[in-house]
User: Fold this.
Amino acid sequence: MAGFLSELVQYRRLLLMLVVLGIGGTHLSGFQMSVINYTSPYIQKFINETWLERYGSVLPQERLMLLWSLIVSVYCMGGMIGCLCSGYLTAAFGKKKSLLFNDVVLITAALLTASSRRAKAFEMILAGRFLEGIAAGIHMNAHVQYAGEISPKKLRGFINVTSTVFLALGKTVARILGLRELLGTEDMWNLLLSFSGLVALIQLIFLPFFPESPPYLLLQKEDKAGCLKAMKQLWGEGNYQTEFDDLMKEKAITKGTKIMNVLEVLREGSVHPQLCTMLLLLLSLQLCGLSAITFYTSEIFETANLHESIIPYVSLGVSISELISIIFCSSIIDRCGRRLLLCGGYLLMALILVLLETSLLLSDQFLWLRYCSVILIFLFIIAYGLGPAGAVVAVMNEIFTLSTRASAFVIGGIIIWLGLTFTGMVFPFAVMLLGPFCFLIFVAVLVISVVLIYLFLPETKGKSTSEITEKFKSCRFKRKHHQPVEMYAAEEKTFCTRL
Assistant:
């Protein structure tokens, strides 16, 4: 740990840039997804009061719920649109300019939500949430790629995980500011919603002082001097010939190929193993049981006889546990590797879900099991943070070359946003039908994911992008086609030459 901290001191300017990237990146996504829960009663009351003042009649309950559902779901709609735009923006203008443009969108959204009470227009909240969704779709992709591209090889795992650290930090900040002692009140809810604008303004001011990513400068702009200058700006004075040579190898492999669009990536057979790996990781992450834990948390806390005034602070403790565990994951990922954290994390989560299932079923017979359920929730969140929460993002950033990464992240982002929408619509019905037995579905998903990850995911720790690409070529991802290994490798070489 001492050696790890000493290395971080050398890269202090890089760490400063990661903070600027993070607060205006995935931090805002975590904040926006969590903060809506704390403003829910106040927004619904505001809609009712506005409707009554305009039309002189009380808004029917079903119409109120329809408007509220629209305010919640329009964020995901905007996220899908922003995700589709992110590939073009990052390819055409680079990650830095894309994030600066995104900050302007976020500030506009914050002004709309902050002014909604004075203007007495709930439609402004709807428009603000839609713009925030678009911004989230852009900065979730741009931030993760940008962070991965500015990292030296020996710190790549740590830096890739920082995007997940800031996502968890955003959730924690939302829970803190959402407390009734701070901004979670009827008089301050609109300021709580518009907090994102202040953070975006900070990034808009400070990000221009940092360079574009070295791989983008070399591979897309063909600016060798600019690439080396960016490395020294971010990593300090030193010899970075090894990193530069790795980029030159990647440039040789993809010579003559500019950044590919989504359709080109989908048609490119040599990228299919990486796309399948990404699909596996994202589906396993979305179906790992976190949604079930979130759904049952309040109910479990209530059955444990926790006082209603204490529950928000216990929930805050859950968020802090997730944040601390992900930070710890970032410090060990470059030593333990990605496969160990993924497989170990998923197996531990599966075991905890089995214990939680048992605890919930027997809690009426043994009252002390209710307190065990609370402890198991904390343990599940810690296992999630130590393993898949950080490792999935790291692997996704490492398995694609620069020419395919932007479009691959668009595809991954669409999967994430569709998964969030699908889970939100289907999961409550699954709970109604199965009750606590719904955890068994997630246990099965976790076990199957471990088997598939063990069989098909090569270790990416300490390897360059070109080395990882070669690993995927040698993996028998197309075993189901019953083709000889030599023939498969020859086909892949043909693809690379054609690129």
